[in-house]
Write a structure and sequence with these properties.
CATH class of the largest domain: Mainly Alpha
Low-confidence stretches: 1-10, 225-246
Distance between the termini: 72 Å
Main location: membrane
Shape: extended
Largest sheet: none
Mean pLDDT: 71
CATH superfamily of the largest domain: MetI-like
GO cellular component, one term: membrane
Protein name: ABC-type anion transport system duplicated permease component
Number of strands: 0
Number of helices: 12
CATH topology of the largest domain: MetI-like fold
Oligomer: single chain
Keywords: Membrane, Transmembrane, Transmembrane helix
Subcellular location: Membrane
Amino acid sequence: MISHRKIWRTSISDHIIYISTRIGIKSISRDNISKYVYRLTISTSIIALIILLYYFLHNILLGNINIFEYPWTEATIALLLSLSRVTIVIFISFTVISLAAFYVYGKSKYAKYILVLLSEILSSISAFLWWPIFSLALLNNILPPLIVSLFIMFQGTAWYIVFNVPLSPPSESEKRLLEMASVYRLSGFKKFSKIFIPSMMPRILAGLSAAWGGAWNSTIAAEYASPRPTKIRKIVDVNLPRPRNRRSPEFQKLEDYVYEYIS
């Protein structure tokens, strides 16, 4: 007799199997449930796409949407530029995090604890909160807008790789491979390229797939820098009240850039 506590500790598929056996349906298994869920997801997605396509074509035929009035050329160029930035940021994130993880694996536990602490602190900071810091650098011509944009995108991308690669404990096979590399005295580059990266490839791919979405999400905050080096565009059009107390001229200049459109 299965107790209720054990039942509610199991997964949803076990609940479905338990309920189906109680009502007399014995042909349901975990494989069947996964198959049904997969088919339901695919069919629902196809139906949703068909409905969206129908309404889109219907509005075009009625004249509610004029597709020729939109700047498709500018949008395509902007999309390609964003794609190039996303690719660069993901490559930089992968390189930096992989090298940091390889260094941590070869050191003591304190290095990993420090990396975990820094990752937790920096990953909790939103990408939008970096704008007040880097806006001063932009206004004083310390950093170009492209570097600021890439750093903000890095802030919203790298942590997906961090929490999949360096923070995950190594498996027994990975430990044995690294021990064999130490016994045979392989160089750092061979150990990194021939053992560490192939053994970490499933985790790296999982982190890169999540980082791809995080990079596109961070472009919302990262691509508001104007091509001109000392100009910043307003992020959101909100009517914020002006502070009544007097500020320094430098802060007033920065405040004017934040509250007004500059193009």
